[in-house]
């Protein structure tokens, strides 16, 4: 991983996301290919995986990264000043000069003016592109500039206008017709996300009407609204969902057209103990244990991490390879009978490793249970493993076989901690 040429491109992600370098590399490659003008740019990015694997956090970081980048000189973005969609000023160039412009500058101009800008060109600027004011914009989710978020709700009551804007009833009388751009609010999430990114939360739960809008946007970079021609929009749509809904989506033959317009990236759980500890430290940070006078004994988080990681691992298929040995190999440690060069083959023998098991959120829930007990001033590995075992007993959704297996994993983690403690005291 040290020689990964893409590492510098996602370093800011690794400060908050731990142990999912491979999926992050796939995400970076998607954006790099799209930025180069590849057809990949006409695809919806769909992240899927188990709960609490980092999907939502990854999207949040991408949005924050875009906001920060737009504040820099390198990331300066300019738009037509009075365009509701913050349109690229180069769309003002007539089609008959774009070829010459591309030959002179190497910049290929795609797209055309939105209905509002077309109207303004005639009414305000007499079709003189040099009179059209341009301003620098700064992406902001809070201000709804270049970054939008859409969450599906009840399909019977949710209005498609949330995505594509709506008629402004208060101005129809003034402008005389619903097809006048001045009587339309270009304030849907797809409109305001133009030039940037829109997060479509739980996209696969959305009604078909909303998905059809995405089909046109993904393939043709156009938004279809009533009473207007297609409106050009150049933006990234990124969504995330759980694996169950993802599998149902793949099995649905009616969704095949949408399948082809997606880049699907699996985000599994982290499988490295050292990175799992970093996840716990991050999740515990808001509690401020030092200020509360609570001491976390050495190896406490590691004991919890060992249990969580081995719950996510598939049973080894190589002779002599145990779950604990596998855990150590994945974390960069050589073990008896196996070396780092064997890791690739070991992973090739797995089918869905990292897609099942204990989530970081479940571990933190049990850790928190230990921390809030009266007169707690210190927690140690035994406390945590005991709390995790109690969580197994309290989980009514677990089947008997799953409860027995997790209890065995607790015992396995306890044995491994005992060896760590002995080695530390030697």
Explained architecture:
The chain is of the alpha/beta class. The chain has helices at residues 11-14, 21-35, 55-70, 95-105, 115-123, 161-164, 169-175, 189-192, 208-220, 243-251, 256-259, 273-284, 300-312, 323-330, 343-348, 360-371, 381-394, 400-425, and strands at residues 44-49, 77-80, 134-137, 147-150, 166-167, 184-185, 197-201, 222-223, 231-232, 236-242, 262-266, 295-296, 378-379. Helix content is 44%, strand content 11%. Strands 4-7-10-1-11 form a five-stranded parallel β-sheet. The radius of gyration is 26 Å and the shape is elongated. The two termini are 33 Å apart.
Largest sheet: 5 strands, parallel
Structural category is alpha/beta
What is the end-to-end distance? 33 Å
**Averaged pLDDT:** 90
Q: Name the poorly predicted regions.
A: 1-6
Which strands sit side by side, in order, in the main sheet? 4-7-10-1-11
Shape: elongated
Beta-strand segment tally = 13
- Count of DSSP H/I helices: 18
How big is the Rg?
26 Å
Strand residue percentage: 5-15%
- Could you estimate the helical fraction of the residues in percent? 40-55%
């Amino acid at each position: 991983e040290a020689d990964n040429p893409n590492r510098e491109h996602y370093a800011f992600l690794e400060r908050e996301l731990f142990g999912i370098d491979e999926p992050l590399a796939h995400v970076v490659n998607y954006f790099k290919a799209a930025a180069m003008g590849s057809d990949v740019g006409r695809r919806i990015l769909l992240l899927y995986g188990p709960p609490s694997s980092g999907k939502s956090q990854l999207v949040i970081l991408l949005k924050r990264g875009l906001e920060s980048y737009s504040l820099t000189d390198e990331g300066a973005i300019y738009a037509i000043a009075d365009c509701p969609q913050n349109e690229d000023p180069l769309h003002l160039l007539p089609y008959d000069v774009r070829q010459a412009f591309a030959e002179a500058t190497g910049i290929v101009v795609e797209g055309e003016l939105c209905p509002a800008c077309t109207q303004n060109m005639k009414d305000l600027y007499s079709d003189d592109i040099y009179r059209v004011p341009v301003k620098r914009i700064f992406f902001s989710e809070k201000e709804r500039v270049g970054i939008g978020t859409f969450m599906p709700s009840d399909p019977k009551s949710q209005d498609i206008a949330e995505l594509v804007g709506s008629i402004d009833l208060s101005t129809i009388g003034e402008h005389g017709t619903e097809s006048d751009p001045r009587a339309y609010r270009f304030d849907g999430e797809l409109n305001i996300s133009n030039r940037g990114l829109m997060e479509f939360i739980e996209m696969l739960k959305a009604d078909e009407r909303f998905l059809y809008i995405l089909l046109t946007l993904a393939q043709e970079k156009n938004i279809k609204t009533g009473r207007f021609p297609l409106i050009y929009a150049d933006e990234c749509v990124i969504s995330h969902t759980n694996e169950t809904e993802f599998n149902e989506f793949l099995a649905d033959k009616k969704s095949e057209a949408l399948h082809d317009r997606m880049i699907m990236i699996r985000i599994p759980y982290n499988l490295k103990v050292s990175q799992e500890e970093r996840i716990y430290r991050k999740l515990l940070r808001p509690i401020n244990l030092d200020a509360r006078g609570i001491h976390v004994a050495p190896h406490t988080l590691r004991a919890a991490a060992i249990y969580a990681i081995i719950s996510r691992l598939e049973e080894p298929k190589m002779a002599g390879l145990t779950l604990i040995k596998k855990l150590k190999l994945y974390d960069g440690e050589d073990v008896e009978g196996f070396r780092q060069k064997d890791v690739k083959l070991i992973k090739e023998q797995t089918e869905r490793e990292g897609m099942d098991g204990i989530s970081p959120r479940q571990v933190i829930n049990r850790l928190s249970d230990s921390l809030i007990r009266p007169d707690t001033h210190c927690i140690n590995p035994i406390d945590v493993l005991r709390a995790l075992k109690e969580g197994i007993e309290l989980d009514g959704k677990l089947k008997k076989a799953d409860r027995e297996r997790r209890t065995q994993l607790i015992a396995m983690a306890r044995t491994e901690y005992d060896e760590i403690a002995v080695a530390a005291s030697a």
